[in-house]
Amino acid sequence: MAGKPVQKARGYDAVVIGTGLGGSTLAYRLAQRGMHVLVLEKGDVLQLHPHQLGEPVGINIKSFPALAAKEMDPHGLNVVGGQTKFYGAAMYRMRENDFLAIPHEAGVSPAWPVTYDDLEPYYCEAERIYRVHGASEGDPTEPPRSFPFPHPPLPHTPLVASLVNRLRQSGTPVSSLPRALDYGPGGKCVLCSTCDAYYCQLDAKMDAETAALRPALASGYVELMTRARCLRILTSEDGTKATGVLVERDGEQRLLHADVVALCAGVGRSAHLLLESRTAKHPHGIGNSSQCVGLYYGGHTAGMLFPMLSFTKKLPEMHTKTFAINAYYNGAPDWPYPLGVIQAVGQMPFWDRDVVAWWKRYAARLVGERSIFCLYMTEALPTKESGFQVSEGRIVGMRPPVENTETFEKLRLLAIDIFRRAGYQAVAPRHRALYHPTGTVVFGTDPRFSVLDRNCKVHDIDRLFVVDASVLPSAGAVNTGLTIAALALKVGDAIARVKYSESNKFVSSLP
Ligand SMILES: Cc1cc2nc3c(=O)[nH]c(=O)nc-3n(C[C@H](O)[C@H](O)[C@H](O)COP(=O)(O)OP(=O)(O)OC[C@H]3O[C@@H](n4cnc5c(N)ncnc54)[C@H](O)[C@@H]3O)c2cc1C
Ligand code: SF4
Questions:
Q1: Which of 18, 69, 93, 296 has the smallest C-beta neighbourhood within 10 Å, fewest atoms?
Q2: Which of 87, 130, 196, 200, when mutated, tests ligand 2's pocket best, judged by the most ligand atoms within 8 Å of its CB?
Q3: 74-91 confidence digits (pLDDT tens)
Protein backbone atom coordinates (compact mmCIF):
# COMPACT_ATOMS: atom_id res chain seq x y z
CA MET A 1 0.00 0.00 0.00
CA ALA A 2 1.50 3.38 -1.05
CA GLY A 3 1.89 6.25 1.43
CA LYS A 4 0.31 6.74 4.83
CA PRO A 5 -3.25 7.77 5.68
CA VAL A 6 -3.17 11.48 6.46
CA GLN A 7 -6.62 12.27 7.68
CA LYS A 8 -9.26 10.67 9.84
CA ALA A 9 -12.65 12.13 9.02
CA ARG A 10 -15.81 12.19 11.14
CA GLY A 11 -18.00 9.15 11.05
CA TYR A 12 -21.03 8.73 8.77
CA ASP A 13 -24.05 6.47 9.18
CA ALA A 14 -22.97 4.82 5.95
CA VAL A 15 -20.32 5.12 3.30
CA VAL A 16 -21.31 4.02 -0.20
CA ILE A 17 -18.56 3.10 -2.69
CA GLY A 18 -19.53 3.80 -6.32
CA THR A 19 -22.28 5.85 -7.99
CA GLY A 20 -23.66 3.36 -10.52
CA LEU A 21 -27.22 2.03 -10.40
CA GLY A 22 -26.54 0.19 -7.14
CA GLY A 23 -24.69 2.99 -5.29
CA SER A 24 -26.84 5.95 -6.38
CA THR A 25 -30.15 4.17 -5.76
CA LEU A 26 -28.92 2.98 -2.38
CA ALA A 27 -27.87 6.54 -1.43
CA TYR A 28 -31.34 7.73 -2.45
CA ARG A 29 -32.99 5.18 -0.17
CA LEU A 30 -30.68 5.86 2.77
CA ALA A 31 -31.41 9.57 2.46
CA GLN A 32 -35.12 8.75 2.49
CA ARG A 33 -34.49 6.88 5.71
CA GLY A 34 -32.75 9.90 7.25
CA MET A 35 -29.24 8.44 7.25
CA HIS A 36 -26.12 10.56 6.79
CA VAL A 37 -24.23 9.11 3.87
CA LEU A 38 -20.90 9.71 2.18
CA VAL A 39 -20.75 8.51 -1.41
CA LEU A 40 -17.31 7.87 -2.88
CA GLU A 41 -16.75 7.88 -6.62
CA LYS A 42 -13.43 7.12 -8.28
CA GLY A 43 -14.38 9.16 -11.35
CA ASP A 44 -15.69 12.67 -11.78
CA VAL A 45 -18.88 14.29 -12.97
CA LEU A 46 -18.98 13.83 -16.75
CA GLN A 47 -18.09 17.15 -18.34
CA LEU A 48 -17.87 17.86 -22.00
CA HIS A 49 -15.07 19.74 -23.67
CA PRO A 50 -16.45 22.89 -25.31
CA HIS A 51 -15.90 21.39 -28.79
CA GLN A 52 -18.11 18.42 -27.83
CA LEU A 53 -21.13 20.54 -26.87
CA GLY A 54 -24.01 19.77 -29.22
CA GLU A 55 -22.19 16.72 -30.64
CA PRO A 56 -23.31 13.20 -29.72
CA VAL A 57 -20.86 11.71 -27.22
CA GLY A 58 -20.70 7.91 -27.31
CA ILE A 59 -18.46 5.13 -26.17
CA ASN A 60 -16.83 2.47 -28.30
CA ILE A 61 -19.29 -0.40 -28.37
CA LYS A 62 -16.41 -2.83 -28.43
CA SER A 63 -15.80 -1.91 -24.80
CA PHE A 64 -19.29 -2.97 -23.53
CA PRO A 65 -18.47 -6.58 -22.75
CA ALA A 66 -15.03 -5.76 -21.45
CA LEU A 67 -16.21 -3.21 -18.91
CA ALA A 68 -16.43 -5.79 -16.13
CA ALA A 69 -12.81 -6.72 -16.42
CA LYS A 70 -11.69 -3.11 -16.47
CA GLU A 71 -10.91 -2.75 -12.78
CA MET A 72 -7.44 -3.82 -13.73
CA ASP A 73 -7.49 -1.27 -16.55
CA PRO A 74 -6.93 2.39 -15.62
CA HIS A 75 -9.10 3.41 -18.59
CA GLY A 76 -12.19 1.70 -17.16
CA LEU A 77 -15.45 3.67 -17.18
CA ASN A 78 -15.18 5.77 -14.03
CA VAL A 79 -17.70 8.55 -13.97
CA VAL A 80 -20.46 9.77 -11.64
CA GLY A 81 -23.46 7.62 -12.61
CA GLY A 82 -21.27 4.71 -13.73
CA GLN A 83 -22.25 2.86 -16.90
CA THR A 84 -25.73 4.37 -16.89
CA LYS A 85 -24.35 7.66 -18.28
CA PHE A 86 -24.13 5.71 -21.56
CA TYR A 87 -26.75 3.01 -21.09
CA GLY A 88 -29.75 2.34 -23.29
CA ALA A 89 -32.20 2.90 -20.39
CA ALA A 90 -34.13 -0.34 -21.10
CA MET A 91 -35.42 -0.97 -17.58
CA TYR A 92 -37.05 -4.39 -17.29
CA ARG A 93 -38.38 -6.39 -14.38
CA MET A 94 -36.85 -9.85 -14.44
CA ARG A 95 -39.44 -12.48 -15.24
CA GLU A 96 -40.82 -14.68 -12.44
CA ASN A 97 -38.91 -17.75 -13.70
CA ASP A 98 -35.62 -15.89 -13.58
CA PHE A 99 -35.69 -16.19 -9.79
CA LEU A 100 -36.00 -20.02 -9.95
CA ALA A 101 -33.51 -22.78 -10.80
CA ILE A 102 -34.13 -23.31 -14.53
CA PRO A 103 -32.50 -25.99 -16.72
CA HIS A 104 -30.77 -24.67 -19.82
CA GLU A 105 -28.98 -26.46 -22.64
CA ALA A 106 -25.57 -26.06 -20.95
CA GLY A 107 -26.50 -26.30 -17.27
CA VAL A 108 -28.82 -24.84 -14.68
CA SER A 109 -29.44 -21.16 -14.05
CA PRO A 110 -29.33 -20.94 -10.24
CA ALA A 111 -32.23 -20.04 -7.94
CA TRP A 112 -32.14 -16.67 -6.22
CA PRO A 113 -32.46 -16.22 -2.45
CA VAL A 114 -35.44 -13.91 -3.05
CA THR A 115 -38.54 -14.37 -5.20
CA TYR A 116 -40.18 -12.09 -7.71
CA ASP A 117 -42.87 -11.32 -5.10
CA ASP A 118 -40.19 -10.19 -2.61
CA LEU A 119 -38.89 -7.65 -5.13
CA GLU A 120 -42.22 -6.59 -6.66
CA PRO A 121 -42.87 -3.57 -4.37
CA TYR A 122 -39.30 -2.40 -4.96
CA TYR A 123 -39.70 -2.76 -8.72
CA CYS A 124 -42.71 -0.43 -8.47
CA GLU A 125 -40.64 2.18 -6.62
CA ALA A 126 -37.65 1.81 -8.93
CA GLU A 127 -39.91 2.31 -11.97
CA ARG A 128 -41.21 5.50 -10.40
CA ILE A 129 -37.74 6.86 -9.50
CA TYR A 130 -36.37 6.06 -12.98
CA ARG A 131 -39.55 7.24 -14.75
CA VAL A 132 -40.03 4.04 -16.71
CA HIS A 133 -42.31 4.25 -19.75
CA GLY A 134 -43.93 1.00 -20.77
CA ALA A 135 -46.99 -1.24 -21.16
CA SER A 136 -47.65 -4.90 -20.44
CA GLU A 137 -49.52 -5.60 -23.70
CA GLY A 138 -47.86 -7.86 -26.24
CA ASP A 139 -45.40 -9.36 -23.77
CA PRO A 140 -46.36 -12.94 -22.86
CA THR A 141 -43.67 -12.98 -20.14
CA GLU A 142 -44.72 -9.80 -18.32
CA PRO A 143 -44.93 -10.68 -14.59
CA PRO A 144 -47.81 -9.58 -12.34
CA ARG A 145 -47.56 -6.01 -11.08
CA SER A 146 -49.33 -4.24 -8.25
CA PHE A 147 -49.14 -0.90 -10.11
CA PRO A 148 -49.20 -0.19 -13.84
CA PHE A 149 -46.13 1.36 -15.45
CA PRO A 150 -45.81 4.91 -14.09
CA HIS A 151 -45.67 6.36 -17.64
CA PRO A 152 -47.22 5.31 -20.98
CA PRO A 153 -44.99 3.60 -23.56
CA LEU A 154 -42.80 5.70 -25.84
CA PRO A 155 -44.35 6.36 -29.26
CA HIS A 156 -42.84 4.53 -32.24
CA THR A 157 -41.53 6.68 -35.08
CA PRO A 158 -43.58 6.05 -38.29
CA LEU A 159 -41.03 3.63 -39.83
CA VAL A 160 -40.78 1.61 -36.61
CA ALA A 161 -44.58 1.66 -36.23
CA SER A 162 -45.03 0.13 -39.68
CA LEU A 163 -42.39 -2.55 -38.89
CA VAL A 164 -44.18 -3.37 -35.61
CA ASN A 165 -47.56 -3.55 -37.40
CA ARG A 166 -46.22 -5.94 -40.02
CA LEU A 167 -44.63 -8.13 -37.35
CA ARG A 168 -47.96 -8.29 -35.49
CA GLN A 169 -49.92 -9.00 -38.67
CA SER A 170 -47.58 -11.91 -39.39
CA GLY A 171 -48.38 -13.41 -35.96
CA THR A 172 -45.49 -12.24 -33.77
CA PRO A 173 -46.40 -10.66 -30.42
CA VAL A 174 -44.50 -7.37 -30.07
CA SER A 175 -44.31 -5.26 -26.91
CA SER A 176 -43.07 -1.80 -26.07
CA LEU A 177 -39.58 -1.65 -24.62
CA PRO A 178 -39.69 -0.22 -21.06
CA ARG A 179 -37.44 2.84 -21.04
CA ALA A 180 -36.27 5.20 -18.31
CA LEU A 181 -36.46 8.65 -19.92
CA ASP A 182 -37.81 12.03 -18.90
CA TYR A 183 -40.29 12.03 -21.78
CA GLY A 184 -43.82 13.42 -21.99
CA PRO A 185 -45.50 16.59 -20.77
CA GLY A 186 -42.86 18.85 -19.20
CA GLY A 187 -40.12 16.27 -19.88
CA LYS A 188 -36.75 17.09 -21.44
CA CYS A 189 -36.41 14.09 -23.76
CA VAL A 190 -36.77 14.84 -27.47
CA LEU A 191 -36.43 11.19 -28.57
CA CYS A 192 -33.26 11.86 -30.52
CA SER A 193 -31.31 9.25 -32.49
CA THR A 194 -28.24 9.17 -30.22
CA CYS A 195 -29.40 7.65 -26.92
CA ASP A 196 -28.17 4.05 -26.52
CA ALA A 197 -24.38 4.12 -25.94
CA TYR A 198 -24.39 7.93 -25.88
CA TYR A 199 -24.37 10.56 -23.14
CA CYS A 200 -27.56 12.64 -22.96
CA GLN A 201 -26.67 16.31 -23.03
CA LEU A 202 -30.23 17.27 -22.10
CA ASP A 203 -30.07 15.33 -18.81
CA ALA A 204 -33.22 13.58 -20.00
CA LYS A 205 -31.90 10.04 -19.71
CA MET A 206 -32.86 8.68 -16.32
CA ASP A 207 -29.41 7.45 -15.43
CA ALA A 208 -28.25 6.75 -11.87
CA GLU A 209 -26.88 10.26 -11.37
CA THR A 210 -29.88 12.15 -12.74
CA ALA A 211 -32.68 10.00 -11.32
CA ALA A 212 -31.27 8.96 -7.94
CA LEU A 213 -28.02 10.62 -6.89
CA ARG A 214 -29.02 14.23 -7.52
CA PRO A 215 -32.26 13.99 -5.46
CA ALA A 216 -30.27 12.21 -2.74
CA LEU A 217 -27.71 15.05 -2.67
CA ALA A 218 -30.50 17.63 -2.66
CA SER A 219 -31.95 16.04 0.48
CA GLY A 220 -28.98 17.29 2.49
CA TYR A 221 -28.37 13.81 3.93
CA VAL A 222 -25.84 12.76 1.30
CA GLU A 223 -22.34 14.05 0.45
CA LEU A 224 -20.50 13.09 -2.71
CA MET A 225 -16.71 12.83 -2.89
CA THR A 226 -15.51 12.51 -6.49
CA ARG A 227 -12.05 11.42 -7.62
CA ALA A 228 -12.06 9.35 -4.45
CA ARG A 229 -10.83 5.82 -4.98
CA CYS A 230 -11.57 3.32 -2.24
CA LEU A 231 -8.40 1.30 -1.68
CA ARG A 232 -9.70 -1.07 0.97
CA ILE A 233 -12.50 -1.75 3.40
CA LEU A 234 -11.56 -1.61 7.05
CA THR A 235 -12.72 -4.20 9.56
CA SER A 236 -12.66 -4.36 13.37
CA GLU A 237 -9.68 -6.00 15.08
CA ASP A 238 -11.64 -9.19 15.69
CA GLY A 239 -12.59 -9.16 12.00
CA THR A 240 -16.34 -9.42 12.63
CA LYS A 241 -17.57 -6.08 11.31
CA ALA A 242 -16.78 -3.32 8.82
CA THR A 243 -15.72 -0.01 10.33
CA GLY A 244 -14.88 2.24 7.37
CA VAL A 245 -12.73 2.62 4.30
CA LEU A 246 -9.29 3.74 3.18
CA VAL A 247 -9.59 6.23 0.36
CA GLU A 248 -7.12 7.90 -2.00
CA ARG A 249 -7.93 11.34 -3.31
CA ASP A 250 -5.57 13.70 -5.14
CA GLY A 251 -2.60 11.62 -4.05
CA GLU A 252 -3.55 11.61 -0.36
CA GLN A 253 -4.90 8.71 1.62
CA ARG A 254 -7.63 9.10 4.25
CA LEU A 255 -9.37 6.84 6.71
CA LEU A 256 -13.11 7.39 6.77
CA HIS A 257 -15.25 5.77 9.44
CA ALA A 258 -18.89 4.78 9.10
CA ASP A 259 -21.40 2.57 10.88
CA VAL A 260 -22.13 0.71 7.66
CA VAL A 261 -20.06 0.19 4.51
CA ALA A 262 -21.90 -0.48 1.22
CA LEU A 263 -19.81 -1.63 -1.70
CA CYS A 264 -21.31 -0.74 -5.11
CA ALA A 265 -18.26 -0.65 -7.38
CA GLY A 266 -19.67 -2.93 -10.11
CA VAL A 267 -18.98 -6.39 -11.50
CA GLY A 268 -15.38 -7.41 -10.91
CA ARG A 269 -14.51 -4.23 -9.03
CA SER A 270 -16.51 -4.97 -5.88
CA ALA A 271 -15.00 -8.46 -5.79
CA HIS A 272 -11.55 -7.04 -6.35
CA LEU A 273 -11.96 -4.63 -3.41
CA LEU A 274 -13.05 -7.46 -1.10
CA LEU A 275 -9.90 -9.38 -2.03
CA GLU A 276 -7.69 -6.29 -1.67
CA SER A 277 -9.07 -5.75 1.85
CA ARG A 278 -7.57 -8.99 3.20
CA THR A 279 -6.35 -9.00 6.81
CA ALA A 280 -4.74 -11.54 9.13
CA LYS A 281 -8.28 -12.55 10.18
CA HIS A 282 -9.36 -12.82 6.55
CA PRO A 283 -6.25 -13.93 4.66
CA HIS A 284 -8.17 -14.78 1.46
CA GLY A 285 -9.98 -11.44 1.37
CA ILE A 286 -12.95 -10.28 3.37
CA GLY A 287 -16.18 -12.15 2.78
CA ASN A 288 -14.20 -14.88 1.07
CA SER A 289 -14.26 -17.72 3.56
CA SER A 290 -16.27 -19.70 0.96
CA GLN A 291 -13.70 -18.73 -1.72
CA CYS A 292 -16.63 -17.57 -3.87
CA VAL A 293 -15.50 -13.95 -4.29
CA GLY A 294 -14.81 -13.33 -7.98
CA LEU A 295 -16.84 -16.36 -9.15
CA TYR A 296 -20.29 -17.09 -10.61
CA TYR A 297 -19.72 -14.58 -13.39
CA GLY A 298 -22.77 -14.54 -15.69
CA GLY A 299 -24.47 -12.30 -18.23
CA HIS A 300 -26.09 -12.30 -21.65
CA THR A 301 -24.73 -13.72 -24.87
CA ALA A 302 -25.75 -11.00 -27.34
CA GLY A 303 -25.84 -10.96 -31.12
CA MET A 304 -26.64 -8.25 -33.67
CA LEU A 305 -29.61 -8.40 -36.00
CA PHE A 306 -30.44 -6.04 -38.86
CA PRO A 307 -33.93 -6.19 -40.40
CA MET A 308 -33.52 -4.15 -43.58
CA LEU A 309 -36.19 -1.55 -44.29
CA SER A 310 -34.71 -0.54 -47.64
CA PHE A 311 -32.07 -1.82 -50.07
CA THR A 312 -31.46 1.53 -51.68
CA LYS A 313 -32.19 4.45 -49.36
CA LYS A 314 -30.45 5.24 -46.07
CA LEU A 315 -32.89 5.54 -43.19
CA PRO A 316 -33.31 8.99 -41.65
CA GLU A 317 -31.97 9.72 -38.16
CA MET A 318 -34.63 8.62 -35.70
CA HIS A 319 -35.23 7.09 -32.29
CA THR A 320 -35.64 3.34 -32.85
CA LYS A 321 -35.36 1.77 -29.39
CA THR A 322 -39.08 1.30 -28.67
CA PHE A 323 -40.02 -2.35 -29.31
CA ALA A 324 -39.19 -5.85 -28.11
CA ILE A 325 -40.16 -9.44 -28.87
CA ASN A 326 -40.24 -11.71 -25.83
CA ALA A 327 -42.31 -14.52 -27.41
CA TYR A 328 -39.44 -17.02 -27.13
CA TYR A 329 -38.26 -16.11 -23.64
CA ASN A 330 -39.16 -19.49 -22.11
CA GLY A 331 -38.57 -21.64 -25.21
CA ALA A 332 -40.30 -22.49 -28.49
CA PRO A 333 -42.53 -25.40 -29.59
CA ASP A 334 -39.44 -27.26 -30.84
CA TRP A 335 -37.02 -26.00 -28.19
CA PRO A 336 -37.34 -27.04 -24.55
CA TYR A 337 -34.95 -24.47 -23.06
CA PRO A 338 -35.32 -20.72 -22.47
CA LEU A 339 -34.25 -18.84 -25.61
CA GLY A 340 -34.23 -15.15 -24.78
CA VAL A 341 -35.20 -11.74 -26.13
CA ILE A 342 -35.07 -9.74 -29.34
CA GLN A 343 -35.10 -5.97 -28.89
CA ALA A 344 -34.41 -2.78 -30.77
CA VAL A 345 -31.21 -0.86 -30.05
CA GLY A 346 -30.47 2.75 -30.89
CA GLN A 347 -28.96 3.93 -34.15
CA MET A 348 -25.19 3.90 -33.82
CA PRO A 349 -22.42 3.87 -36.43
CA PHE A 350 -20.96 0.56 -35.24
CA TRP A 351 -19.20 0.15 -38.59
CA ASP A 352 -16.91 3.07 -37.74
CA ARG A 353 -15.66 1.40 -34.58
CA ASP A 354 -13.07 -1.33 -34.27
CA VAL A 355 -15.82 -3.85 -33.45
CA VAL A 356 -15.94 -4.44 -37.23
CA ALA A 357 -12.82 -5.53 -39.15
CA TRP A 358 -11.76 -2.81 -41.63
CA TRP A 359 -12.47 -4.95 -44.68
CA LYS A 360 -16.06 -5.58 -43.57
CA ARG A 361 -16.88 -1.94 -42.81
CA TYR A 362 -18.25 -0.98 -46.21
CA ALA A 363 -20.78 -3.85 -46.21
CA ALA A 364 -21.59 -3.28 -42.52
CA ARG A 365 -22.34 0.36 -43.21
CA LEU A 366 -24.49 -0.47 -46.21
CA VAL A 367 -26.63 -2.79 -44.07
CA GLY A 368 -26.52 -0.69 -40.87
CA GLU A 369 -27.72 2.51 -42.52
CA ARG A 370 -30.71 0.76 -44.07
CA SER A 371 -31.95 -1.31 -41.15
CA ILE A 372 -33.25 -1.11 -37.58
CA PHE A 373 -30.42 -2.28 -35.33
CA CYS A 374 -31.68 -5.02 -32.94
CA LEU A 375 -30.06 -7.32 -30.39
CA TYR A 376 -30.96 -10.87 -29.55
CA MET A 377 -29.84 -12.15 -26.17
CA THR A 378 -29.68 -15.51 -24.39
CA GLU A 379 -28.59 -16.12 -20.81
CA ALA A 380 -24.93 -17.07 -20.30
CA LEU A 381 -24.64 -19.26 -17.21
CA PRO A 382 -22.60 -18.51 -14.10
CA THR A 383 -20.61 -21.40 -12.60
CA LYS A 384 -18.10 -21.97 -9.82
CA GLU A 385 -15.44 -21.74 -12.55
CA SER A 386 -16.59 -18.55 -14.30
CA GLY A 387 -14.99 -15.32 -13.08
CA PHE A 388 -11.58 -14.33 -11.77
CA GLN A 389 -8.59 -16.26 -13.00
CA VAL A 390 -5.89 -16.00 -10.39
CA SER A 391 -2.20 -16.68 -10.87
CA GLU A 392 0.31 -16.38 -8.01
CA GLY A 393 -2.24 -14.46 -5.94
CA ARG A 394 -2.93 -11.94 -8.73
CA ILE A 395 -6.09 -11.59 -10.80
CA VAL A 396 -4.99 -12.09 -14.38
CA GLY A 397 -8.30 -12.31 -16.21
CA MET A 398 -11.97 -13.30 -16.25
CA ARG A 399 -13.05 -16.80 -17.26
CA PRO A 400 -16.32 -16.31 -19.22
CA PRO A 401 -19.71 -17.73 -18.26
CA VAL A 402 -20.91 -20.92 -19.97
CA GLU A 403 -22.72 -20.07 -23.18
CA ASN A 404 -25.84 -21.87 -24.42
CA THR A 405 -24.45 -21.93 -27.94
CA GLU A 406 -27.10 -24.07 -29.66
CA THR A 407 -29.88 -22.10 -27.99
CA PHE A 408 -28.26 -18.87 -29.14
CA GLU A 409 -28.07 -20.15 -32.73
CA LYS A 410 -31.70 -21.25 -32.52
CA LEU A 411 -32.72 -17.76 -31.38
CA ARG A 412 -30.69 -16.22 -34.22
CA LEU A 413 -32.57 -18.34 -36.79
CA LEU A 414 -35.94 -17.63 -35.16
CA ALA A 415 -35.20 -13.91 -35.17
CA ILE A 416 -34.33 -13.92 -38.88
CA ASP A 417 -37.49 -15.93 -39.58
CA ILE A 418 -39.73 -13.56 -37.60
CA PHE A 419 -38.67 -10.63 -39.78
CA ARG A 420 -38.80 -12.67 -43.02
CA ARG A 421 -42.40 -13.63 -42.25
CA ALA A 422 -43.19 -9.94 -41.89
CA GLY A 423 -41.61 -9.25 -45.29
CA TYR A 424 -38.14 -8.01 -44.28
CA GLN A 425 -34.72 -9.44 -45.12
CA ALA A 426 -32.69 -9.68 -41.92
CA VAL A 427 -28.93 -9.95 -41.59
CA ALA A 428 -27.57 -11.56 -38.40
CA PRO A 429 -23.80 -12.05 -38.46
CA ARG A 430 -22.47 -14.96 -36.38
CA HIS A 431 -20.83 -12.60 -33.92
CA ARG A 432 -21.47 -12.83 -30.19
CA ALA A 433 -20.47 -10.82 -27.15
CA LEU A 434 -21.12 -10.81 -23.41
CA TYR A 435 -23.48 -8.00 -22.37
CA HIS A 436 -24.91 -7.04 -18.99
CA PRO A 437 -22.36 -8.96 -16.90
CA THR A 438 -23.46 -10.18 -13.47
CA GLY A 439 -21.98 -12.03 -10.51
CA THR A 440 -18.60 -12.22 -8.76
CA VAL A 441 -20.14 -11.28 -5.34
CA VAL A 442 -23.38 -13.24 -5.46
CA PHE A 443 -26.08 -13.32 -2.81
CA GLY A 444 -27.60 -16.61 -1.71
CA THR A 445 -28.87 -18.67 1.18
CA ASP A 446 -25.94 -21.06 1.55
CA PRO A 447 -22.69 -19.44 2.75
CA ARG A 448 -20.74 -22.23 1.03
CA PHE A 449 -21.84 -21.05 -2.41
CA SER A 450 -22.42 -17.32 -1.98
CA VAL A 451 -20.71 -14.25 -0.53
CA LEU A 452 -23.81 -12.42 0.70
CA ASP A 453 -26.98 -13.33 2.54
CA ARG A 454 -30.46 -12.58 1.20
CA ASN A 455 -30.17 -8.95 2.44
CA CYS A 456 -26.87 -8.60 0.53
CA LYS A 457 -24.89 -8.43 3.78
CA VAL A 458 -21.54 -10.25 3.66
CA HIS A 459 -22.19 -13.61 5.36
CA ASP A 460 -19.46 -13.51 7.96
CA ILE A 461 -19.02 -9.74 8.41
CA ASP A 462 -21.54 -7.40 10.00
CA ARG A 463 -22.25 -3.90 8.69
CA LEU A 464 -20.80 -4.71 5.27
CA PHE A 465 -23.24 -4.83 2.33
CA VAL A 466 -22.76 -5.12 -1.44
CA VAL A 467 -25.31 -4.04 -4.02
CA ASP A 468 -24.61 -3.66 -7.74
CA ALA A 469 -24.66 -5.97 -10.77
CA SER A 470 -22.16 -8.27 -9.06
CA VAL A 471 -24.68 -9.59 -6.53
CA LEU A 472 -27.06 -11.03 -9.15
CA PRO A 473 -26.80 -14.86 -9.09
CA SER A 474 -27.91 -15.03 -12.75
CA ALA A 475 -28.85 -12.64 -15.54
CA GLY A 476 -32.07 -14.09 -16.98
CA ALA A 477 -32.32 -12.69 -20.51
CA VAL A 478 -33.85 -9.24 -19.98
CA ASN A 479 -31.72 -6.19 -19.18
CA THR A 480 -30.65 -6.27 -15.54
CA GLY A 481 -30.65 -2.55 -14.61
CA LEU A 482 -34.06 -2.23 -12.97
CA THR A 483 -33.35 -5.30 -10.84
CA ILE A 484 -30.14 -3.72 -9.55
CA ALA A 485 -32.08 -0.56 -8.64
CA ALA A 486 -34.93 -2.52 -6.97
CA LEU A 487 -32.45 -4.56 -4.96
CA ALA A 488 -30.64 -1.40 -3.86
CA LEU A 489 -33.91 -0.06 -2.42
CA LYS A 490 -34.45 -3.34 -0.59
CA VAL A 491 -30.88 -3.37 0.72
CA GLY A 492 -31.35 0.25 1.84
CA ASP A 493 -34.21 -0.88 4.03
CA ALA A 494 -32.06 -3.67 5.49
CA ILE A 495 -29.31 -1.13 6.27
CA ALA A 496 -31.82 1.26 7.84
CA ARG A 497 -33.01 -1.60 10.03
CA VAL A 498 -29.43 -2.01 11.30
CA LYS A 499 -29.25 1.71 12.02
CA TYR A 500 -32.67 1.93 13.66
CA SER A 501 -32.70 -1.51 15.24
CA GLU A 502 -33.28 0.05 18.65
CA SER A 503 -35.83 2.73 17.91
CA ASN A 504 -37.18 0.98 14.77
CA LYS A 505 -38.21 4.42 13.51
CA PHE A 506 -37.80 5.35 9.85
CA VAL A 507 -37.90 8.97 8.76
CA SER A 508 -38.63 10.10 5.25
CA SER A 509 -37.03 13.15 3.68
CA LEU A 510 -37.76 12.43 0.03
CA PRO A 511 -41.01 11.86 -1.81
C1 LIG B 1 -23.45 1.19 -23.43
C2 LIG B 1 -24.22 0.45 -22.39
C3 LIG B 1 -25.59 0.26 -22.55
C4 LIG B 1 -26.33 -0.39 -21.56
N5 LIG B 1 -27.67 -0.48 -21.68
C6 LIG B 1 -28.41 -1.03 -20.69
C7 LIG B 1 -29.82 -1.02 -20.75
O8 LIG B 1 -30.44 -0.49 -21.68
N9 LIG B 1 -30.52 -1.60 -19.72
C10 LIG B 1 -29.87 -2.17 -18.65
O11 LIG B 1 -30.55 -2.68 -17.75
N12 LIG B 1 -28.53 -2.18 -18.58
C13 LIG B 1 -27.78 -1.61 -19.56
N14 LIG B 1 -26.42 -1.59 -19.46
C15 LIG B 1 -25.78 -2.22 -18.30
C16 LIG B 1 -26.00 -1.37 -17.04
O17 LIG B 1 -25.66 -0.04 -17.33
C18 LIG B 1 -25.14 -1.92 -15.89
O19 LIG B 1 -25.46 -3.28 -15.68
C20 LIG B 1 -25.38 -1.19 -14.60
O21 LIG B 1 -25.34 0.20 -14.80
C22 LIG B 1 -24.33 -1.59 -13.58
O23 LIG B 1 -24.55 -0.88 -12.39
P24 LIG B 1 -23.62 -1.09 -11.13
O25 LIG B 1 -24.37 -0.60 -9.95
O26 LIG B 1 -23.13 -2.50 -11.10
O27 LIG B 1 -22.39 -0.14 -11.30
P28 LIG B 1 -21.43 0.49 -12.40
O29 LIG B 1 -22.19 1.20 -13.44
O30 LIG B 1 -20.44 -0.53 -12.85
O31 LIG B 1 -20.75 1.62 -11.54
C32 LIG B 1 -19.81 1.37 -10.53
C33 LIG B 1 -19.22 2.70 -10.12
O34 LIG B 1 -18.27 2.46 -9.07
C35 LIG B 1 -17.13 3.28 -9.29
N36 LIG B 1 -15.98 2.61 -8.64
C37 LIG B 1 -15.40 1.45 -9.02
N38 LIG B 1 -14.38 1.15 -8.20
C39 LIG B 1 -14.33 2.14 -7.28
C40 LIG B 1 -13.48 2.40 -6.17
N41 LIG B 1 -12.49 1.56 -5.84
N42 LIG B 1 -13.69 3.54 -5.44
C43 LIG B 1 -14.70 4.42 -5.76
N44 LIG B 1 -15.52 4.21 -6.82
C45 LIG B 1 -15.34 3.09 -7.56
C46 LIG B 1 -17.00 3.34 -10.80
O47 LIG B 1 -16.25 4.48 -11.19
C48 LIG B 1 -18.47 3.42 -11.23
O49 LIG B 1 -18.93 4.74 -11.33
C50 LIG B 1 -25.65 -0.94 -20.42
C51 LIG B 1 -24.27 -0.77 -20.27
C52 LIG B 1 -23.57 -0.07 -21.22
C53 LIG B 1 -22.10 0.15 -21.02
S1 SF4 C 1 -33.57 10.01 -26.56
FE2 SF4 C 1 -34.06 11.45 -24.94
S3 SF4 C 1 -32.94 10.68 -23.14
FE4 SF4 C 1 -32.07 9.67 -24.94
S5 SF4 C 1 -30.30 10.98 -25.47
FE6 SF4 C 1 -32.07 11.68 -26.70
S7 SF4 C 1 -32.97 13.35 -25.50
FE8 SF4 C 1 -31.62 12.19 -24.13
A1: 69
A2: 200
A3: 345 789 999 999 999 999
